[in-house]
Amino acid sequence: MSRPPSGPRPGPKGRPRPPEPTTAAPVPDRSLEPEMPLPTVAIRSPGNHPFIFRKMIDGVKGPLVARPGDLVQVVDRDGLPIGYGLWNPRSQISLRMLSREPQAPGPDFWARKADEAARLRVDLLEIEEQSNAYRVIHAEGDGLSGLIVDRFDDVLSVEVFSLGMYQRIGPILDVLARRLGTKHFRVRVDERVAMQEDFAGRPVASPGLPPRVTIAEHGVRYRIHFAESHKTGFFCDQRDNRRELAKFCKGRSVLDACCYTGGFGLNALIRGRAKDVTCVDLDEKAIALAKENANANNVRLDLIHADAFGYMRQMGLNGREYGVVVLDPPKLIPDREEVSAGKRKYFDLNVLGMGLVEPGGLLVTCSCSGLLDPAEFQALLKAASRKANRSVQLLAMTGASADHPVALDAPEGAYLKAAWLRVGERLPEPIAPPSPDEP
Fold it and tell me: Looking at domain 229-426, which of 3.40.50.150, 1.10.520.20, 3.40.50.720, 3.30.930.10 is its CATH number?
């Protein structure tokens, strides 16, 4: 992302997209049956987190060689068994714990994990009564570190973050398809992940994968074009927040900045009965999909292909105000080296957003950066309110929908933060200048 003199310029959600496969590519099909005997890897300090970083590895023990992607037995320094994990010495996360049970995970283990995940979504949460799009596997939250699977009607859309998972993705998807009754799949690996894990990670798809599907969420229809989409194709994590937004929009003007394919804007217009809705995004293809989604619902959005920062700055100069403003930018802190720059972008974005909310109106501002925790996000918003010279009340802090469960041993899985803010009157002068350390 570049930063022009007038402020930071957010790119579209996610990293650059790898090309979708144009022909049927071989699907990695390493067996889920453990290759006994297993290599053994010792770690220095056992803990409960599924990530074992390189500096925590004591070494491979015994005569067997542990190859990248292997299932290995994990022991402590004294040789006492801890469990089993997927091994990749090329990655900073050299070991991803898979099971702490006495026996090595085999086909029964994977079938049980698939069943547990499906029962949570289908039986307990009853998500299929709300939508035919939802998260099926949420990595560490479902005990399968390195694997993300979303369901879109008959398609399982997958993001893989580990070499070991990628090598076994064919059999894993067979297990999930049998449990869920899906017919197709597509698999992608982010370019950054492929570099970190040191493998090619080429995208693969099932024969006959449809280029697009239609989903419905709380009565709103969306088209998903896999070749044009970011991540798995749609952001299911905002399902509940999109639903809740509608309660605040009746008769109001709504601005959906960084709108992607118009999820918040469509809910504001269709379910919330907003007076008018403006959607802004820098990604031209996302704007085209937002238009297609509006057409699928027989409504009209005011769609603007522009940098959200520049557009909001111009609206501020024009004296424009909105009853509701939604800020749902891409991940502005992709790694630890960009924490400071990313926090500045969030700060600037929210200063502009607060300035556009009419007195007594609502700002829903989000961060999907896992490296920005909720307390830091609130502190950043406090600093932004001072800079914007507005009084602000925090009404609620919400996160991802419940089909994105968080393992208590891996709390960073709670990456999504959505602050619901009531923005008050413009103050006559700043209460106090923001501290040089804020954000």
Answer: 3.40.50.150
